[in-house]
Amino acid sequence: MESTKHIKANQNLLLKRYKMLIEQAYNFRQTDSALSDISEFKAIKLLHKLNKLKYLNRDVNMIQQH
Q1: How many structural domains comprise the chain?
Q2: pTM (predicted TM-score)
């Protein structure tokens, strides 16, 4: 149960950071394409971590049900 809470808290933190980076990339798109690309790259890396956490959370839930 504790690991599920930890994973969920980590997901929420990463999701907030992801949204901020996507917004930042969008805002930089017209003024500084290099900064926009960097923000978008960081956002993609965070999205990959979020997907891993979703997978882990799914596994933990399956184990707890059995």
Answers
A1: 1
A2: 0.78
